[in-house]
Amino acid sequence: MGGLIFAAPASGSGKTTVTLGFLRAAARQGVAIRSAKSGPDYIDPRFHAAASGRDCVNLDAWAMTPDRFRDLAAHDPGETLVIEGAMGLFDGAPPDGKGSSADLARLLGLPVVLIVDCARMAGSVAALAHGFATLDPQVRVAGVILNNVGSPRHEKMLRRALPDTPVYGAVPRNSALSHPSRHLGLEQAEERPDLEQFLETAADTMAEHLDMQALLHLAAQQDVPAGKPAPMPPPAQRIAVAQDRAFGFCYPHMLNDWRQAGAELTFFSPLGDDPVPQADFIFLPGGYPELHAARIAATQNFLPSLRKAAQTTPTYGECGGYMVLGDGLIDAAGTRHEMAGLLRLETSFAQRKLHLGYRSLHALRGAFPGSHAGHEFHYASTLRAEGEALFHARDAMGTELGPMGLAQGQVHGSFAHIIDRGE
């Protein structure tokens, strides 16, 4: 089972573009390729799946047990696993950087190929490459990919500075390979009408400028240890899951755990004004409801059926789903939209505030008893939250955050995304 990790010295170095181009180029060559994304990321895996034609998993060295991410990283003999890192190689949660891409490299025993944005450097690339390669002897930096190279002359200067470092390619600067940004990260894959053109352009570029065979050979020399994680039990036998552009942030491994335990999952689209299906449990994942708040508020089937079903059916919302369970949501323009009214919760994007970080969660009530590891990332401000708390929360440093989320009867939710069982 072969694999490697594409990482970088910092965010914005071009990891995603290089990864997507490599995945599509390898798939076009008939390579059995699959991918993973380091950390709690809902956006990049959709692009990975579009590029490779295979589902992409998240591997989180902070929130997942080693058995969990080893199990998710395992794949069939003959397949190649490509993991895209997050942020810089050694950037993780405070205080000690746990959860970094370097953590995955250590725990999975995979080599790292460092993608370096060379747009504003020449000979200094040698010091950068040397520092990353020697900082931690347990992290094998096998070589570099030079990105945003300005000219053939620039490439020669960079390569001359790296006589003892394997260079797996030099990618020229190309404005056609830029990604649009949005307040919570990259634009979602399904929202980009030129996605196929972008992926083909990226693949053409990587096929021409990367040493594809050397990278595949590097990956083939590795082995990923297997793991047997303790599954997350399903909250009920029949589970209705909201799924569309407004409710798209749900970890596949959690749903797979539920399926493997015998739960029946039915998906429905609130944006399509589907009524909530008959079920024993209703799950509204996170997403971008603030971008579709007027449409959600105007639904003739979804909100009325949700209000009715929640009277007798346990109902749970994460982040965006949590906001929809509230009384009202104020969008970025300052317009208030009536939501389900099942929790005494008012949220606003007119008053933006970043909430970001890993969370250790202990359930005080609700359908997910015990302790869990999760993550919070949103810009919503809470104007009002009244009721019983769902979780007690701590951050990655162990700092007490106090009560988190709300519960009212059988309806409950919070801004945290549950990732795995906690300790």
Describe this structure in words.
- By secondary structure, the protein is α/β, with parallel strands linked by helices.
- It folds into two domains: 2-220, Rossmann fold, CATH 3.40.50.300; 238-421, Rossmann fold (3-Layer(aba) Sandwich).
- 26% of the residues lie in helices and 28% in strands.
- The chain has twelve helices and 24 strands.
- The strands form five sheets. The protein has a seven-stranded parallel sheet with strand order 3-2-4-1-5-6-7, with helices on both faces. The chain has a six-stranded mixed sheet with strand order 11-10-12-13-23-22. The chain has a five-stranded antiparallel sheet with strand order 21-20-17-18-24, with no helix packed on it.
- Strand 22 (406-408) and strand 23 form a beta hairpin.
- The protein starts with a strand and ends with a strand.
- The relative contact order is 0.12.
What is the element layout, followed by pairings?
Layout (H helix, E strand, L loop, with lengths): L1 E6 L7 H14 L4 E6 L5 H9 L3 E4 L6 H8 L6 E5 L16 H8 L3 E6 L7 H10 L6 E9 L2 H9 L6 E6 L8 E2 L2 E2 L8 H15 L2 H9 L17 E5 L9 H9 L3 E5 L12 E4 L8 H5 L4 H8 L5 E4 L1 H6 L2 E3 L5 E3 L5 E5 L6 E9 L7 E8 L2 E6 L4 E5 L4 E5 L1 E3 L2 E4 L2 E5 L2
Parallel strand pairs: 1-4, 1-5, 2-3, 2-4, 5-6, 6-7, 10-11, 10-12, 12-13, 13-23, 14-16
Antiparallel strand pairs: 8-9, 14-15, 16-19, 17-18, 17-20, 18-24, 20-21, 22-23
Helix pairs in contact: 1-2, 1-7
Number of strands: 24
Identify the quaternary structure here.
single chain
Distance between the termini: 29 Å
Q: Can you give the mean pLDDT?
A: 93
Query: What gross morphology would you assign?
Result: elongated
CATH superfamily of the largest domain: P-loop containing nucleotide triphosphate hydrolases
Described by strand count, sense and barrel closure, the largest sheet is:
7 strands, parallel
Please identify the structural class as seen in this structure. Answer: alpha/beta
Identify the strand order in the major beta sheet.
Answer: 3-2-4-1-5-6-7
The parts where pLDDT drops under 50 for at least 5 residues are 181-186
Strand content: 25-35%
Number of domains: 2
